[in-house]
Amino acid sequence: METRRKKLIWVSPWGYTEGWLLCAGLLITGLLLQLTIGGLSSGALSWPINIIFATTFTVALVIGWVFFKKNNMINWLSRVPAAITSIVFVTFLVLIMGFTLQVDSENPVWVQKLGLSNMTNSWPFLFGIVFFLAALGMATLKRITPFKGRNIGFFLNHAGLYIAILAGIAGAPDLKRLTMELHHDSIVWVSMDRQGHLYEMPLAMQLVSFNMEEYNPKVAIIESRTGRIVPEGLKDIFEISKGNVGSILDWQVEVKEFYSLSGRFGERFEPVMDWGAAPAALMKVTDPDGNITEGWITCGSFMYPHQLLELDDNLSLAMTIPQASHYSSDVIIYTEDGDVIETRIEVNKPVSAQGWKLYQYSYDDRFGRYSSTSIIEAIRDPWLPVVYTGIFMLIAGSVYLMTLGKAPENQEGDLS
Amino acid sequence: MMPINPFSFTLAAMILWAVGMFFFMIAGEKRSLKVLAHSSYLTGIAVLVVFMWLLWDILERPPMRTLGETRLWYAMFLPVIGYATYLRWDYKWILHYSGFVAIVFLSINLIYPDNYDRDLMPALQSVWFIPHVIVYIFAYALLAASAIVAVKGLLIHFFNWKMSWNMQLADNLVYLGLGFLTLGLLFGALWGKEAWGHYWMWDPKETWAFLTWIGYLAYIHFRYHKPKMEQTAMWILAIAFIILLIAWFGVNYLPSAANSVHTYSS
Q1: B131 Cβ contact list (under 8 Å, min separation 6)
Q2: Is A156 exposed, middle or buried (0-12, 13-18, 19+ CB in 10 A)?
Q3: Per-residue pLDDT at B265
Q4: Residue in chain A nearest B121 by alpha carbon
Q5: pLDDT at residue B28 is higher than 90
Q6: Helix, strand, or coil here: B258?
Q7: Of the candidates B196, B103, B195, B179, which has an alpha carbon nearest to the alpha carbon of residue B142?
Q8: Hey, which residues 241-270 in chain A have their CB within 8 Å of chain B?
Q9: What is the pTM of this model?
Q10: Fewer CB within a 10 Å sphere, N or C end of chain A?
């Protein structure tokens, strides 16, 4: 049995007290650095400095464990008190982050000065992660020397996390996220970062067509003057499709006809495929007294105005603007290697070329489906394979974690 | 414009669970009542499963887009976990607890009925959407069960109830729950790379998901190191679950989440 006795701090073996003191020291040092020399710039540790740091850090942990495992600090780092205090330290910082909008300009000056609104580029966060990784790395080394088969689950979880976090943090400055604005029939090889700097790309792209499919619009009751949807009717909104019926507030609403693309011909609408064509529906509305009103509604487009069906002095029936169900760009990619690739870039289906991954990012939403502009995001993340190695180790490790519960450790059947 | 009535399905599931729980309570050793209890409880789950299946079919998308839809999954998984835990380890109380919480969640859906529509933004149309959400909600349900074990333990201690107590159930649920939570998190990372271009962006939801994850990590390490300090461990569990709730739906209301890609649509 353990007996509780007063232990002097900084005397072997270190425990929780030393951990908390270390956290306090790291926090104070970090905040002082933050106040005096400011936060870390996100690009400062780009290749090859980051690979040198990451390797040196890992080698230092290995040397520390192999040659100095009797050292108070090294020994302590490999045990649970260091794990828990570093977890709490990181949790504390991330908790602040969780409650603070991570945009400098939206926060008071003191929050900005302390780096709390840009936490991931702050000194305390860096120190917290380094402490966390040191404990994680040391614990892994302790458990795998000598390596035993039954420690495989432990290894997958701990080493996987170490690899994923170290590569994620070290690789962040090498992550390139650039946008390319494509227009019909012009070839673009220049991209732009978030700050507006321009870069020449090792590939060029040409937009052949921008495609969009939309869900059917919905029918709602709005205040005629403000255009606002009547909140009590919000839950009754329903999809416009020929034959659909529903009741909104006290009105019975029926869709008599619906064209997803149409043009106006006098008082009525007919299906057309023209540039700027908008959806339109013929609606039949019955009020509580049985009076019937019929008329066309449309949400309009950049070319055509919208049209409401008046119900009474205040309220009208309106069509909502349809939501995109799919959008994509058909492009031709010309690479530096001389390849010409005709392909489609779609949301959730990026395309790889010349070491870059190309994503459907945006379009000119003023024109919606008729947009002649498509914005493609080009992303390069050379550290991704390393991070993924860590992630897949963790996935395997989490399955191991699920099996842990079955082991009934010293249970005497006194479960309630 | 729903060809089915969500209200009646929801209500039917709730009543069946309540009836099942009632029979479990009074059954004692009576075989016929036990059969009634089991069948009523299971039918409740079945009704909800059928409802969600129909909903999926009608909406032509997985019913996982709105907060109310995620509550449906939660209300389905929780009794499943409660029932499995009961069969496996014979804890009857967890059956009642999970039935009760599922009923509470479905009541919220009855009071604030969802406006089910088919729209699903393109970024959500991914093979990862379903595993990400299901694995997460399943983890939430397991960890909710572990939280209630902790709360019960704390109450026993606080009021000096004469009940034997043991943390093994909480541990088992956390191991399982954290396993699923980790999978959910990592599936989210892999999906994020395909849809938004990066696996981790410290989006407010991600920040809170990380906090939830690391909270349970703290619990496991603390249990490993100080198995005798059960009370502290139970407090960690209770706090971790509060963080989980913030991650699940609190984030929708946090000002720090104004720009999140993870807010539920309504």
Answers
A1: B183, B187
A2: buried
A3: 67
A4: A325
A5: no
A6: coil
A7: B179
A8: 244-246
A9: 0.89
A10: N
Of chain A, the end-to-end C-alpha distance in Å amounts to 26
Can you identify the CATH homologous superfamily of domain A177-213+325-380?
Tick-borne Encephalitis virus Glycoprotein, domain 1 (2.60.98.10)
Which residues of chain A lie closer than 8 angstroms to B197, CB-CB?
177, 350, 357, 359, 361, 377, 379
Angle between helices B129-158 and B67-89 (to 10 degrees): 60
Mean of pLDDT over chain A: 91
Q: Do residues B250 and B208 lie in contact, with contact meaning Cβ atoms separated by under 8 Å?
A: yes
Among A244, A347, A365, A381, the strongest candidate for a mutation testing the B interface, having the largest count of B CBs within 10 A, is: A347
Q: Residue A273: what residue type?
A: M
Residue holding tokens 């859906």? B109
Q: How confident is the model at residue A374 (pLDDT cuts 50, 70, 90)?
A: very high
Q: What is the DSSP string of A328-386?
A: EEEEEEEETTS-EEEEEEETTB-EEETTEEEEEEEE-TTTGGG--EEEEEEEE-TTHHH
CA dist., res. A344 & res. A319, Å (int): 31
The answer to whether residue B253 sits within a structural domain is: yes
Tally the C-alpha atoms within 13 A of residue A325's C-alpha that lie toward its C-beta.
11
State what percent of residues in chain B have pLDDT above 90.
Answer: 61
The answer to whether residues B111 and B135 belong to one domain is no
| Beta strands, E only, A147-197 | 176-183, 187-192
B1 pLDDT band, cuts 50/70/90, is low
- Which of the listed residues B90, B117, B144 is the one where a domain comes to its end? B117
Residues 25-44 in A contacting B (C-alpha not used; CB under 8 Å):
none
- The amino acid present at B43, given as its one-letter code, is T
Domain that holds residue B55: 1-117
Q: Which of B99, B117, B135 is the last residue in one of the domains? A: B117
Domain boundaries, chain A: 16-174+386-404, 177-213+325-380, 216-322
Query: In the structure, what pLDDT confidence band is assigned to residue B266 with cuts at 50, 70 and 90?
Result: low
Cβ contacts of A336 within 8 Å, gap of 6 or more: A202, A203, A354
- Phi then psi for B252, rounded to 5 degrees? -60, -25
